[in-house]
Amino acid sequence: TPIALTALIELESRGERLWYFLGPKGGGIEIGEVLVVTPESPIGLELMGQKAGEKFKLQTRGPAQEFKILSVR
Q1: How many whole angstroms separate alpha carbon 14 and alpha carbon 25?
Q2: Which are the contacts of 51, defined by CB distance < 8 A and separation ≥ 6?
Q3: Rounded to two decimals, what is the model's pTM?
Q4: One digit per residue, pLDDT tens: the chain, 73 residues?
Q5: E strands of the chain, at which residues?
Q6: Burial tier of 61 (Cβ tally within 10 Å: 0-12, 13-18, 19+)
Q7: In this structure, are strands 34-37 and 16-22 parallel, antiparallel, or unpaired?
């Protein structure tokens, strides 16, 4: 299933598992281990339409960081 609004996404980067919730607003809020992001954020833009198993690179500050999408709920 392609990633869309209200998806809960599990990513892996540098051996660490990360959780993101793609919401329509409220980006930057952390709920436990889950970070809320919006489709307008750099990572939200990359996640939209992607599927579990895909990889992408994101560069915000410093060197690019590679992510693997482990699951989408």
Answers
A1: 28
A2: 1, 2, 3, 69, 72
A3: 0.91
A4: 899 999 999 999 999 999 999 999 888 899 999 999 999 999 999 999 999 999 999 998 889 999 999 999 9
A5: 8-13, 16-22, 30-31, 34-37, 55-58, 65-72
A6: exposed
A7: parallel
**Residues in the chain, how many?**
73
CA 24 to CA 26: how far, in whole Å? 7
Tokens coding 52: 């579990």
Provide the phi-psi class of 67: left if phi over 0, else alpha when psi is between -120 and 50, else beta: beta
Cα separation, 11 vs 33, whole angstroms: 12
- Do the strands 65-72 and 55-58 form a parallel or antiparallel pair, or are they unpaired? antiparallel
